[in-house]
Structure formats: C-alpha cells, structure tokens
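The passage that follows is intended for readers who have already worked through the single-chain material. We present the inputs for a multi-component assembly, then the predicted structure in tokenized form, and finally a short commentary. You are encouraged to pause after the input and sketch how you expect the pieces to fit together before reading on.
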Amino acid sequence: MLEAQNISYAHRKFSILENIDVSVNYGELLVIVGPNGAGKSTLLSVLANELARHEEPILFKKKAFKEWGDKDLAHSKAKFSQSNSHDIPLSAKDVVMMGRYPYFASIPQKKDQDATQKAMEETDVAALASRDYNSLSGGEKQRVHLARVLAQLDNEVENKMVFLDEPLNNLDVLHQHRILHTIKKFTQNGNAAIMVLHDLNLAAQFADRVMLLKKGKIVAHDVPAAVFTKEIISRVYNFPCIVCPNPVNKNPLIIFGT
Amino acid sequence: MKHRLGIYIVLSLLLLALLAVVSLYMGVYVFEKHSIIDVFKGIIYNDGSIDAADRFVLMDLRLPRIVMGILIGSALAVSGTCLQGMFRNPLATPDLIGITAGASLFAAVAIVLGVYIKPYIPEVFHFSFLSLMAFVGAFLTMILVYRISTQNGRTNVVMMLLTGVAITSLGFAVMGLLIYFSKEEQLRDLTFWNLGSLAGATWTKNGILAVIITVAYFFLINKGKALNAMMLGEHDAQHLGIPVERIKKQIILLTALMVGTCVAFAGTIGFVGLIVPYILRLVFKSNYHLILPMSAIFGSILLLVADTISRTIAPPSEIPIGVLTAFMGAPIFITILIRNRNAL
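Having made your guess, compare it with the prediction:
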C-alpha cells in the first residue's frame, strides 16, 4: 500500500535518516519505536509527504504523492501530529469538523455532522463538543485531534492510511486502549496505519509489525516477537531488560530495569 | 458553523445601506428636497427638478466619497483578516507589520520623483503610476516581513511586529527627507498621505478600486475554511487537502494589491484591519468562515461611519479620518497585547 525505498533525510548536514526502506501492506498496523532522537517522527513526516524530497518518490497505492489530487489524497490519508497547536479559538466541535473540510464546500452536510459526532463519541469527547478548544486539558485536546483525524477518513474509499505520531501521549490508560482498539479496527478493514509509539508493551500487543530505529537506521523490522528480544531491546535502549511471554495474550512482555 | 452566515450578511448589508443613506444627508450642505426618493428620481429622469448645486454635491462630492469609504473600508478589513489568518496572529494587520508604511513610502517617492520619471514611461501608465508604486511597496514589504518573521510555517510575532516598526520608521525618515526637498504642491500631497482622507474620491478611482476588490474577493472571500485549517499548522492543513502554499501566495499578492491601491487613493488610514476582525472575533470566535465575509461588510460600516463623523463633527473643516480610526484602534491594540502577554 505504501512503498518507500532508500529514504535519507538530513537537516543542515546533520543526518537524521539513512537509507530506510519501508513498505506497508493492506491491513497492516506498523509501529515505529526507538529511543529519543532515533528519527521516528521525521520518518513519519517523510512517509506522510510533509517534507520535500528529491529522491525516489514514495508510492502510495502505487501512485507517487505528486500524482494525487489534493482532495483525493485527503480522502485516503490523514495524519495526527505530535505538535498540535495550543491556540485555536474555536469550539472543540469546530476543530473536529475541520476533518470534514475535504468533503463540503461551505456548509457542512448531514453526513459531515454525523461523521463528526461519531468520531467524537469514538474518542470520548462528545461531551466537550461546545467547549472552547483552548480551555481543554492536554489529553482532551489530543482526543479532539484524534477525532478530527477519524472524521477525515470516515468515507467509502477503500484502503485508507493513517499516520499517527505518538497518539497516546497525555492519555490515561482507558483512552490509550480505546484509541488503539479503534485503530486496530480501522486496519482490519483493509486500511493501514503507521504509528510512532513509546510504550513497547502496547506496541507488542497491537502491532502487526514493528520497526525499531536507532540514530536514523533500522535495527529491526519484523513481527513483534522477532523484534522484542532481550538482546535487541537492551542493546538499543542501552538499559537492561528481560522479555517474557505476556500471561494473558502471549505477546512479548518487556520489563525494564531488571 | 451552525451560524447562519446568509442571514448575518443580509442584515449587515441592510445596516450598511441605511448608514449610507444617513451619511448622504449629513454634512454642511443641506439638500432642497428631503426625500431620498425624490432626489434620485430627479437625478435619474434629469427633469430639472434638482438644481445644479444639489446635483453636484450629491453626485460629485458625497456619493463618490461614500462609495470610496465603503470600498476602502472593506478592502482594508479583508486584508487584515487574511493576513491574520496567514500569520496566525490577531496583530498581523497591514499597518502594524509595515505594509501600509511600505506602500506610502513608495507612493511618496512616486509623488516627489514622479516629475522626473514620468517623461520616460508611456503615457497610459501616468495615471496608475502612483497605485502601481504603492502596490510594489506593499508587495516588497510583505515579502520582507514574511521572510524575516516566519520559519517553517511558524510566525515569530515579536519579529513580525518589529519588522513593521523598522519599516515604518524607515518610512518616516524617507518622508521627512522628501518633505524637506519637495515643492509647495507636493508638500500638500505628502501631508495627505500621512493623515489619510477620503476627500479625493472620484468615480474613476472608485471604478479602479471596485475592479481590484472584485478580483481579490473572487479568490480570497471563500478561503475561510482554509484559514481555519491553517490554525492547526501548515502541515496539518495540507493533510486536509488545503493547498497552503498557493493560498499564501494569493493572500500576499492580493492583499498587497488592495492595500497598495487604498494607500494610493486615500493615504494611510490605520487600524481598520485590526478593529474589524477584533470585534467580529468577540462574536464569532476565530471562525474565519464567518469573520472573513463579515469583515468585508463591517469594514465598510466602520469606515463609512468614521468618515461621516470626520466630515461633520467640526464643520466647516474636517478631522483627518486616520485620527478617528487610531483613537479606536490603539486601545484595541493594547487590549490584544495584554491578552497575549504570555504568548509573545
């Protein structure tokens, strides 16, 4: 669904990413993990077509991003960013409605209202709809933006893709799991998702495949059980850990500091 | 967005029409006939029921001036709103970031040096020379301010305002120099730029303004959604299918065109682009989908009222209109500064 070869990226001659190949299949949830400064967010930005590049084009559904129309692309892919604006003097619902901008010209239609409402219920912000966005807490703002991203992809298009940059920061346990279940449900319908996460155990539990980055290079890119081994994790994170099977679902369970 | 934009627009247009009629009757000169319908009937049928003086005051003095107030007020307010959307800050207005100063700087140079340059340019351009120069001034300033204050889609507000201060003081310096060198007649023109006035209104100028405003609004007035999305950040707006770069170019070019023309025809009328969006934000929050079209009408209302006051409050002389708008604008400027104290 998404194919990118040989991604390199440098900022002022300081190399951030080096020769990374990524391909994501239909229905796949790829989670990118790695220590601070590994280049996770930069990689996600490159894959989501935010940063201008001159090398080989990234193919999204077999077409380069340049060949896509603005609107079609917005119907097929969305991104949740880590650095969300803190000053948007609108109501929470108005912010979620922005996700429907690719669908209506001037006045939101019934289906836009419905999609907004559904997305807000999904991320548990329906009760905040008329609140001032600026008055919300960090976690609430984050859920408003997640609802916006969900509303953007609520359509009939087959094989959509969502990019999420640390969507779980600031969220409590309940909402972390709710969001992950929502994303999992999304990918099970032939859609795909690439997500940057910090919590390795959540990654182990939900990811179809995991990409482990360090200093701009791929250390491992495989199913969770193959990536999350004691040797790899303690070496990459430079911190001792043990890995044992999760007693509930048999996924790898990483315990640090032992 | 559940607000009914259409109703608001119709209501405020009615208010504007009412104010325009009232303004037509205000002034030192009093018409013989007191019904507006009688006066216009007389003028349209040209049956001699209106005397020449009435006709002259109405058609050549008051009406063009009212129309110019409506056009310039609207253009300045829309320019302010668009710039605020692009810079993502309520202080980004043509005057505070130096666009107006840049335009009047070039206009002043055009007035003083125009005498020497004019023989070398084709005659067709003589008339529009001033507006062209003002546009070039506004455009160059806009690019300079944007380049200096914005990096990676984030605007440094302090840099933005200080660039405006720098260009404004450069404007004062050049203006002082030109005043020193200029002749009597040019001096009067220059004073006019600095204070701003609608007294020079003619139908030709109104025609040019109307064309420019129509073209600019054709591209800008429906950009409310895009400006809303840009509050998320430029990348996120792009993910929503908004062609951010193209819209920014349109805003830079078209607001420079509008501000340049307004400055060329009416001098520096400050703060309109600050006051109107500020008041609309109090009612509609920051929803550009509403405040962008509404600012087009409320800009007209503001400048029409201000101009009517400026020409009637101290008869027979006029108070410069820029003085009035500054009296309204400066307190609002300070209010916004206090509110954003922590963000700056």
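Commentary: The first helix of chain A runs from residue 40 to 47. Chain A has nine helices and twelve strands. How closely did your sketch match?
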